[in-house]
Amino acid sequence: MNNAGWAKDWLEGRVVLVTGGTGGIGGAIAEAFRDAGAEVIATGASGREVAEASARPQAAGIRHIVLDVRSTESVRAIVGGLERLDVVVNCAGIIRRGEELASEVFEQVVDINLNGSMRVCEAAAPLLEATGGTIINIASMLSFFGGGLVPGYSASKGGIAQLTKSLAIAYAPKGIRVNAIAPGWIATPLTEALQNDPARSGPILGRTPLARWGRPEDLHGLALFLTSPHAAFMTGNVIPVDGGYSIS
């Protein structure tokens, strides 16, 4: 259930950019910010992604645009060209299970997941400085653990954790706070193959104390809180939302 009304006090009328916001975790976070009264811009990697997201009834009121986070020029033109920006959520990412041991695939995954997030942060920083804004990066359990089938994804998410800490230091004098959410095993299209494979899903659920797959909306509360005055002294944190997976 998406009940974000409690966040309207600090988000109503604010402008929020969610990269990778056409579905899954990014789409759910975009909807939460919209429900809190923010003006939300959600990006997708292709015209098809954007068209499909725009047609979803639950995404009504969200502005969807195409943004290739691999292109520095596009990121600077689109993100830097916004009139105002209060919150950035870096959620654009890919995973290629079983293919990332090939160097060319590894490079593609890192370029989108890690380099793309840095490009967006760089372009957004002047706008966020003007509003005293915040950045939320989407990390992962694989920021902390290795993944034999996904070395590119794991390396990129480990990089996201360190990027978050480093930019928190670099951007603090600008008044920009930078934090990250590290989701556990969330039921999205990216994890569908694992959900449907009992041999993989069983051990995941067996290690998760809450004994279920997470839902994208399980991230809503923390995402909204991190933008709030209640989190004004929080920066550089990488916070798990994982049903207890990382402690078991």
Written overview of the protein:
This protein has one domain: Rossmann fold (3-Layer(aba) Sandwich), CATH 3.40.50. Strands 3-2-1-4-5-6-7 form a seven-stranded parallel β-sheet, sandwiched between helices. The protein has helices at 8-11, 24-35, 47-54, 72-78, 103-131, 151-171, 192-195, 198-207, 220-226; strands spanning 15-19, 39-44, 63-66, 87-90, 134-138, 177-183, 238-241. The longest helix has 29 residues, at 103-131. By secondary structure, the chain is α/β, with parallel strands linked by helices.
Indicate the topology.
Blueprint: H1 8-11, E1 15-19, H2 24-35, E2 39-44, H3 47-54, E3 63-66, H4 72-78, E4 87-90, H5 103-131, E5 134-138, H6 151-171, E6 177-183, H7 192-195, H8 198-207, H9 220-226, E7 238-241
Instruction: Give the overall pLDDT as a whole number.
Output: 96
User: Unreliable runs, pLDDT <50, ≥5 residues?
Assistant: none
Task: Please tally the β strands and state the result.
Answer: 7
Counted up, domains total 1
The CATH H-level superfamily is: NAD(P)-binding Rossmann-like Domain
Summarize the structure.
The chain has 9 helices and 7 strands. It is of the alpha/beta class and 248 residues long. The chain has a single domain (5-188, 215-240), classed as 3-Layer(aba) Sandwich (Rossmann fold), CATH 3.40.50.720.
Structure characteristics:
248 residues; alpha/beta; Rossmann fold; seven-stranded parallel β-sheet; 7 strands
